[in-house]
Design goal:
Blueprint (H helix, E strand, L loop, with lengths): L1 H18 L1 E13 L14 E13 L4 E12 L6 E14 L6 E13 L7 E12 L4 E8 L14 H5 L17 E8 L6
Antiparallel strand pairs: 1-2, 2-3, 3-4, 4-5, 5-6, 6-7, 7-8
Length: 196
Amino acid sequence: MSKKILLISCIFIISISSVFAADFGLTVDGNTALIYDTGADFNWDSLTYSVKAALWGNASFTEDIGGEFQGSYTFSDSRVFTLELDQLQLSANFLIPGDAGASTLSLKAGRLGFADFSGKVFAHTGDGININWNLPAISISAYGAYTGLLQQPASAVLMSKSDIADTSVDPIPFFGPLAAPRVIEGFTLTFPELFA
């Protein structure tokens, strides 16, 4: 009976992967830390450890549409949350022909990373949408996201006393406390051939 189930499972996986290109995997990594006091022995009470297993995958449903995901589970003696949705996005790229030249329209939706042009002033994750329209003479980009569905340790947005007060909220079982609810938006214009 188990050979039949294995054969059926293999046929199912091969048939699904032949419909669209897919790649998936599992990574496991661990971390252990121990504090050493100068002039004393090891402080064994400070021993911390964590093991993180992450399941990731990406797929191309058509030539223009694809998606990515990554979810992880952390086992630790010091962390307040265990399950994480690190990334979940759907992306699409379209070529638009025109008289002045072809342009491309790119859309991404889901849990995405957002940053300013340098990445040093602002870099954060949020649940939202990102739109890029690349014309021959100009590139337009706009995005919007919400941070209230992230887990608290994954968010660095602490702008007010109410944000800090949110850190004392009881965590959701197996998920942890949620981050401060903020809306992130941005709009950029780039002229790639201004001095061509």
